[in-house]
Design brief:
Order of helices and strands of chain A: EHEEEHEHEHEEEEHEHEHEHEHHHHH
Shape of chain B: elongated
Strand order of the largest sheet of chain A: 3-4-2-1-5-6-7
Radius of gyration of chain B: 26 Å
Shape of chain A: globular
Number of helices of chain A: 13
Number of helices of chain B: 12
Oligomer: heterodimer
Distance between the termini of chain A: 27 Å
Number of strands of chain B: 20
Structural class of chain B: alpha+beta
Largest sheet of chain A: 7 strands, mixed
Helix content of chain A: 40-55%
Strand content of chain B: 25-35%
Number of strands of chain A: 14
Radius of gyration of chain A: 21 Å
């Protein structure tokens, strides 16, 4: 599993006929993302890079059944493009555009919120659920399917963190670039909540930077609700106050929004805060190992969340198995067969999984030498948990 | 984008936001002429720099650092005093709590009519990032730093949130004006002032207004005695007239140079220059330099592409800073291939005379090929493959 985008995502690219839109739509398609439509007003009815182009997002939703919008529209028009997508009824909007005027974003944010649509960005690299869908501009090949969620305000720094994870054999459930602007649709707290509820995410990396208080709010959520280990880094400890560090939102204003404040809040919340961005990968590995021994959870949340967690683990276990199979084989080939049983069967999942199990043993071992150990050690505990949880469910 | 107080006030006046009458002057003669034009018997001479705390700042000789005068804002009771204060400010260094020890040279002064102040308040507008909406704030604690008021007596700050769908409403202006304790004509003028201010904020694509102090005059008027006006950088294309408000004296020369190449460069005080693609990674790289025992000399984001040309321009900018003792290049090649970037780095290094050690770390697509190209180039690079290795090599480079 994953959050927000997956194999079922049907993407409409707004601004598909522009330079950026064309290039990245091609890259998304090459990754295996279902890009079902493009939108360029006035070019409706044509085809571009093999994708049907529509005049409006509404048509793309009605005709091509698009449910995710990815926006590559120039900044002056991007705020409006977000509103168009929200009004057309897509579930998720990913806005890559950098440099949207704040006034436009205030309106677009308000509009999107009123429609109950999930906006990611703007000024972000997008979102990827490895092996399933890439909606954005990140290099797909550095990612690997797995169980760590990544949330970041940055682009290349996210790639850096992801590469560190992949290099030591830790895959990702979903990586989400929430964007470097002062107004963004999805904040740390939103993404943390989604990952906490995602049975296939075992740990989360949050990469923040100076400016605003989104990291502090995320940390408060972690302290209260998070049942999974979180590793954090804040960029900009050496940034001078009052200067905008590249991102519109990366500014220490009135003495507020410093890296030191954020790191302190995160540490207090039980987040594993790393001092150097070079240590993100290995710290996640350590946190996962601690987690396995039951030492890594935020102490505060433990008791209240036990029941929930067990239920989560049950799901997690079932799906992890299914996913491992996915990851081991060439992902794309395996998709059609697997997608159906897992998703349709969600309540009954256990059965579906059992059927697949016999075939699975081999590929798992081959594909995940580094990861195999922690998973296996953890399993006995989980079995118990599953039993308890399922008993509760029945009653 | 920051502008000077006098520019902000000129713009606010066009939106019917009352301010004292005043004129900018670049020389003591102009200052006296401005005072004569304003008439009256009391004037205020105000240093114009892009930093706050001017009134409590000190003026120094730029070379000898000898103290010339306390205060960067002075009340003059004669034309001679106007001349004296303007002469002492212009061309000299004003050091305030916001400029840091290096201070800023005063190139312009604002000459304003004296105002009969009955009470001082605060009014401000800015984006509340938590709500993703603009807010207007007022406080009875005029003349104080609002951050200090917020920390010590938050109950003295009144705030209203502006609904994006309908904009600032008159009832909100009334609530704030009542909150300031205004009555009668002063109340009416307060409501008018705040309404005009909100209108200006919206029309100008402002990112911050700070009217501190906002004053009630002896005759019941509400006027902006000071005005800090910032514009949203992302909206500057919509306001081509703002380009004329830019004051290059307020920007570091290397930053001006970098902006010509569309490079996002911020000069810092350290000894290790860095060139990175992406703002977050650039900040992260600065942090790494610090952890490695160095101090970052700059922030430089060369953007997603990082072509040979941008790399070359980046080198020029970084090396324009004499404090730079080593350079760290950290590029994550995602869509862009590292081997191409490596060739760009080599080409740039050959075109420019570089006499400091260079640590190059290229990660991502074709990183291995890139390392090989760098190692075989004949140029002395310290090639690193991971961020950790890069940090270690920087430490070594500084030591050597």
């Amino acid at each position: 599993m994953s959050i927000l985008v997956d194999k079922k995502s049907r993407v409409v690219v707004q601004g598909i006929t522009g330079g950026e839109g064309t290039f990245h739509a091609q890259q998304m398609i090459a990754y295996g993302t279902k890009v079902v439509a493009g939108v360029t007003p006035g070019k409706g009815g044509t085809e571009h890079i093999g994708v049907p182009v529509f005049n409006t997002v509404r048509e793309a939703v009605d005709v091509a059944k698009a449910n995710v919008a990815c926006i590559f529209v120039p900044p002056a028009f991007a705020g409006e493009a977000i509103m168009e997508a929200a009004d057309a009824g897509v579930a998720v909007i990913v806005c890559i555009t950098e440099g949207i005027p704040t006034k436009d974003m205030i309106r677009a944010f308000d509009f999107v919120k009123s429609r109950g649509v999930r906006l990611i960005g703007p000024n972000c690299p997008g979102i990827i659920s490895p092996g399933q869908a890439k909606v954005g501009i990140m290099p797909g090949f550095i990612h690997m399917k797995g169980n760590v969620g990544v949330i970041s305000r940055s682009g290349t720094l996210t790639y850096e963190a992801v590469k560190q994870l992949t290099d030591i054999g830790i895959g990702q459930s979903t990586c989400i670039g929430i964007g470097g602007d002062p107004i963004i649709g999805t904040q740390f707290i939103d993404a943390l909540r989604l990952f906490n509820d995602d049975p296939d995410t075992d740990a989360v990396v949050m990469i923040g930077e100076i400016g605003g208080t989104a990291e502090e709010e995320g940390a408060a959520f972690v302290k209260k609700h998070m049942t999974k280990p979180v590793v954090g880094f804040i960029a900009g400890r050496t940034a001078p106050p009052g200067r905008r560090m590249g991102h519109a939102g990366a500014i220490i204003a009135g003495g507020k929004g410093t890296a030191a404040e954020k790191m302190a809040a995160m540490k207090k919340a039980g987040i594993h805060v790393v001092e150097s961005p070079a240590l993100i990968g290995i710290t996640v590995a350590k946190a996962l190992k601690l987690e396995e021994h039951g030492q890594s959870k935020p102490k505060h949340a433990k008791a209240a969340q036990k029941a929930e967690k067990k239920a989560d683990q049950k799901k997690a276990k079932a799906e992890k198995k299914a996913d491992k199979k996915l990851a081991a084989k060439p992902v794309k080939k395996a998709e059609p067969k697997k997608a159906k049983p897992v998703k349709k069967a969600e309540p009954k999942k256990a059965k579906a999984v059992k059927k697949v199990e016999p075939k699975k043993a081999k590929p798992v071992k081959k594909a995940e030498p580094k990861k195999a150990k922690p998973v296996k050690k953890a399993e006995p505990k989980k079995v118990k948990a599953v039993k308890k949880a399922s008993a509760k469910k029945k009653s | 984008m920051k502008i000077h107080e006098y520019q902000g006030k000129e713009i606010l006046r066009t939106f019917n936001v009352p301010t004292p009458a005043g004129h900018v002057a670049f020389t003591p003669d102009e200052a006296v002429a401005a005072a004569e034009k304003l008439g009256g018997s009391i004037w205020v001479v105000k240093s114009q720099i892009h930093a706050g705390g001017r009134g409590k700042g000190d003026v120094y000789h730029p070379d000898t650092r000898e103290l010339i005068m306390n205060g960067g804002v002075k009340v003059a009771k004669s034309l001679d005093e106007v001349r004296e204060y303007a002469s002492k400010m212009l061309g000299n260094l004003l050091v305030t709590i916001q400029t840091g020890a290096e201070g800023k040279i005063v190139h312009r002064v604002l000459i304003e009519e004296g105002v009969d102040i009955r009470k001082e308040f605060y009014a401000g507008m800015l984006l509340d990032r938590v709500q993703s909406k603009n807010v207007m704030m007022v406080s009875t604690e005029g003349g104080m730093e609002i951050e200090k008021v917020a920390a010590e007596t938050p109950e003295k700050i009144l705030k209203v949130t502006i609904d994006p769908a309908v904009g600032f409403q008159t009832y909100q202006a009334r609530a704030l004006a009542f909150g300031l304790g205004l009555t009668g004509d002063a109340f009416k003028n307060g409501v008018k002032f705040l309404t005009a201010l909100a209108k200006a904020y919206d029309a100008l694509d402002a990112s911050m207004f700070e009217i501190n102090p906002l004053v009630l005059t002896g005759d019941g008027r509400i006027i902006a005695l000071d005005a800090k006006v910032n514009f949203d950088d992302n909206a500057l294309d919509r306001h081509p007239d703002f380009a004329a408000l830019r004051d290059l004296d307020e920007e570091a020369p290397l930053e001006i140079e970098a902006s010509k190449y569309n490079l996002n460069y911020i000069k810092l005080d350290g000894n290790v220059g860095c060139m990175v693609n992406g703002a977050g990674l650039a900040m992260g790289t600065m942090d790494i330099i610090k952890l490695a025992g160095g101090e970052p000399a700059n922030f430089l984001d060369v953007g997603g592409g990082a072509s040979a040309e941008t790399v070359e321009n980046g080198f020029r900018i970084i090396l324009g800073d004499p404090n730079v003792k080593a350079i760290l290049i950290n590029i994550f090649g995602g869509i862009v291939r590292c081997d191409r970037i490596a060739n760009g780095v080599i080409q740039a290094a050959q075109n420019i005379d570089i006499n400091v050690p260079i640590v190059v770390r290229l990660a991502g697509t074709n990183a291995v090929e890139a390392a090989e190209i760098l190692n075989n180039s004949g140029v002395k690079f310290m090639v690193a493959s991971t961020l950790k290795e890069a940090a270690e090599k920087v430490t070594r480079a500084i030591a050597s």
